């Protein structure tokens, strides 16, 4: 299992909570958008692709689940996600 670190800038007052429909990764980002490229599986679809081949489509598999408002809430989610990643058995939502 890939291990993600979830970094929000200090004192972020608002962030988006995303889940990837492809690999189920959950993450936070200060950028709020309906869909995002997954930081886990969406970065580099195929590094082997040659210059003459078609560019792979960017897959925006991560879907915004929730907008987190408030500095404390952002911090709380940041911690929960870190716990989930490090193997904490946490009941979500
Ligand atoms: Zn993914």
Q: Can you give a write-up of this model?
A:
This protein has a domain at 14-42 and 58-85. The mean pLDDT is 81. It has 1 helix and 4 strands; from the N terminus they run ββββα. The protein is elongated and about 50 Å long. It is 16% helix and 23% strand. The structure holds zinc ion. Zinc ion binds next to loops.
Descriptive labels:
binds zinc ion, 93 residues, alpha+beta
List the helices and strands and how they pair.
Blueprint: E1 14-20, E2 26-29, E3 35-36, E4 62-69, H1 71-85
Antiparallel strand pairs: 1-2, 1-4, 3-4
Bound molecules: zinc ion.
Helix content: 10-25%
What spatial form do the alpha-carbon principal axes imply?
A: elongated
Task: Give the number of helices.
Answer: 1
Largest sheet: 4 strands, antiparallel
| Strands in their spatial order, largest beta sheet | 2-1-4-3
Topology as H/E string? EEEEH
| Distance N to C terminus | 22 Å
Q: Could you give the count of β-strands?
A: 4
SS class: alpha+beta
> How large is the share of residues in beta strands?
15-25%
Bound molecules: zinc ion
Radius of gyration: 15 Å
How confident is the prediction overall: mean pLDDT?
81
Stretches where pLDDT is under 50 for at least 5 consecutive residues are none
Can you summarize this structure?
This protein has 93 residues and is an alpha+beta fold.
């Amino acid at each position: 299992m890939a291990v993600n670190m979830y970094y929000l800038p200090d004192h972020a007052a608002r962030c988006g909570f995303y889940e990837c429909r492809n690999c189920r990764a959950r993450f936070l980002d200060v950028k709020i958008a309906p869909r995002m490229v997954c930081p886990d599986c969406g970065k580099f679809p195929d590094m082997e692709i040659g210059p003459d081949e078609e560019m792979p489509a960017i897959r925006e598999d991560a879907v915004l689940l929730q907008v987190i408002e408030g500095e404390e809430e952002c911090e709380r989610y940041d911690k929960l996600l870190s716990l989930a990643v490090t193997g904490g058995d946490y009941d979500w939502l």
